[in-house]
Amino acid sequence: MFNDLEKNAQYLSDATKMIDTLKTIHTNTIHQHVVLGSLVKTNVSNFYIALSIGKIELENDTYFVISKSSPIGELLYNKTTGDCITFNNTTYTITEIR
Question: For the whole model, what pTM was predicted?
Answer without folding.
Answer: 0.83
